[in-house]
Design goal:
Blueprint: E1 6-9, H1 25-38, E2 42-46, H2 52-61, E3 70-76, H3 88-95, E4 100-106, H4 109-116, H5 120-135, E5 140-146, H6 148-154, H7 156-168, E6 173-178, H8 185-198, E7 203-207, H9 214-223, E8 228-231, H10 245-254, H11 263-266, H12 269-280, E9 297-298, H13 301-309, E10 327-328, H14 336-345, H15 354-369, H16 378-389, E11 397-407, E12 413-423, E13 426-434, H17 437-449, E14 460-468, E15 479-486, E16 491-498, H18 501-525
Parallel strand pairs: 1-2, 1-8, 2-3, 3-4, 4-5, 5-6, 6-7, 7-8, 9-10
Antiparallel strand pairs: 11-12, 12-13, 14-15, 15-16
Length: 526
């Protein structure tokens, strides 16, 4: 097995083509820094000939230094019937000021005929002359053979000839692209073997994920001697996305023994994955291998029991190696071991109290039967555990609340909540407005309690989700409300269930506040 594989990240260019993603220049600069810290060898910054934003990005990068990554400018071969020096795209690549450029050319005769609308011979000249022109400036040139696998299947001789033209012009690497993402692993491997018989230049691989095979194809290519692997963080890209570089890196390092990055850099993989999703404003997929929230999460009682005895029973790698963590979920499928594991995580010693354990398990199953779900509401579950253990002091009692929603003549909606709570021997009666009834209720409750618990001013409601449990009941259906709160140090989720959405929201709001107060009390006690 080879000792070295070069990682080529194209998140800032190909990844930005994902639906709903629009990176600002500042976004790209921040991501570039993170990718350099991760240890990628090539960092493709964009296409300077296509838009002002990418031109500015490359200008900004001239004043910044990268520790490991080589910044890459991307473009295409020259336009038909133009000399390279007349082509604006190639000129912009030179102006970008990078030591490495990547250009793509057509490998598929169908693309030449319909997309370029030129002759096969002219396309070969476009490839050769463009590469030779860029090499004349002393640049490292990576040639992306676009649609190579489809092209090979349609016309193998021509597809190979395009590679030979790029190689003879001096290209440093020939990257084979599965641009449509529909090539099966066996097909890809067979074609790469044929390429290696005629092409002696270093090869790269660039796969799309339209058949859910981008990572598998990329790793298979490495096994056959490909030395450069292209991909994007989280697999972002057009249509179904690109090869997920997070999965590729983890597999290369942990499964194939290839030290593409250091152990310390690998431990930052999850953090970088979530950073990029945050900047892209995309909710991370929990099921993403290695870096997803659920990647090392256990729910079934048998699984939890086994993992507690030996993690390898249900984990193929250690989560800490990729910067992730093991999570134990609590549900009606959970057994005693899952409950004790979760209690240990919350630093609640309940193992020596079998009556409390039995009570919690019974209550848990009853609540989930009624529609509660604690997998995504660990704040509510910790409150439940502390109540069962007797580590709970009641912070307030509800005397009553009223929520009013009015619509005026102008069509504007107005929500107001009035609330009365009792803290110790004192009654607090207050009112507040909000954008909606739940927001008004939250504001009123917080307003009433902040006098007694000033730390609640730090707490913010950051997300609110409603799920209909029994849709057949129509407007009388039971709903589950999940609320996410944070205070600058932590974030937590709480749950409420009722046929009345206000009541369900109230339950989740109260649990959120109680969790905050319990948390602060435990910290202060220490």
């Amino acid at each position: 097995m080879k000792e070295k594989v070069l990682l080529y990240d194209t998140t800032l260019r190909d990844g930005a083509q994902k639906e709903g993603v629009s990176f600002s220049v500042e976004d790209k600069l921040r991501i570039a820094q993170k990718l350099d810290e991760l240890g990628v060898h090539y960092l493709e910054g964009g296409w300077p000939g296509s838009n002002p934003k990418d031109i500015r990005f490359f200008q900004e990068m001239k004043s910044r230094s990268l520790k490991r990554a080589k910044l890459v400018a991307f473009g295409s071969t020259r336009k038909k019937r133009l000399r390279p020096e007349q082509d604006d795209n190639l000129q912009e690549l030179i102006k970008a000021g990078t030591s490495v450029v990547t250009i793509f050319g057509k490998s598929w005769d169908l693309q030449v005929k319909y997309a370029l609308q030129t002759t096969l011979e002219e396309n070969l000249k476009m490839i050769f002359e463009s590469v030779k022109f860029l090499k004349s400036f002393g640049l490292e040139v990576i040639y992306d053979a676009e649609h190579f696998f489809d092209g090979f299947k349609a016309n193998p001789h021509y597809a190979l000839t395009t590679l030979e033209k790029a190689a003879s012009a001096g290209a440093d690497n020939l990257t084979l692209c599965d641009t449509n993402g529909g090539t099966l692993v066996e097909e890809l491997c067979e074609i790469i073997r044929e390429v290696k018989k005629r092409i002696k230049k270093p090869l790269g691989i660039h796969c799309h994920n339209d058949a859910e095979l981008a990572v598998a194809n990329s790793l298979s290519a490495v096994k056959l001697g490909v030395v450069l692997v292209q991909g994007t963080i989280n697999g972002y890209g057009e249509r179904c996305g690109n090869a997920n570089l997070c999965s590729i890196i983890a597999n290369l390092k942990l499964k194939m023994g290839i030290d593409c990055i250091t152990d310390k850099q690998l431990a930052n993989l999850t953090e970088i994955s979530r950073f990029v999703s945050e900047v892209a404003n995309i909710v991370p997929r929990d099921e993403t291998p290695f870096v997803g929230l659920s990647a090392f999460t256990h729910k079934g009682g048998v699984h939890v029991s086994a993992v507690q005895k030996h993690p390898r029973t249900y984990e193929h790698v250690s989560p800490e190696k990729v910067g992730n963590r093991r999570r134990i979920l609590i549900s009606e499928l959970s057994g005693k071991s899952a409950l004790l594991s979760k209690a240990k995580e919350f630093k609640i010693d309940i193992a020596k109290d079998p009556k409390a354990v039995k009570k919690v398990l019974s209550l848990l199953k009853d609540l989930e039967y009624r529609g509660y779900q604690f997998e995504g509401a660990e704040g509510s579950f910790e409150v439940l555990l502390r109540k069962a253990k007797g580590e709970y002091d009641k912070f307030f009692d509800l005397e009553g609340f009223r929520v009013i929603v009015e619509k005026d003549k102008k069509g504007l909606l107005r929500s107001e909540a009035t609330i009365k709570v009792k803290v110790g021997n004192q009654i607090e009666h207050t009112a507040a407005e909000g954008d909606g009834p739940v927001n008004a209720l939250d504001n009123a409750l917080r307003k009433a309690l902040e006098k007694f618990y000033p730390d609640l001013k730090e707490m913010k409601l950051s997300d609110f989700k409603v799920r209909v449990i029994d849709a057949e009941a129509g407007t009388a259906a039971k709903v589950r409300v999940l609320i996410e709160s944070r205070d600058g140090k932590d974030e937590w989720n709480t749950v409420g269930v009722s046929e009345n959405i206000i009541e369900a929201s109230w339950q989740a709001l109260v649990d959120g506040i109680e969790y905050k107060l319990l948390k602060d009390k435990v910290v202060n006690r220490k």
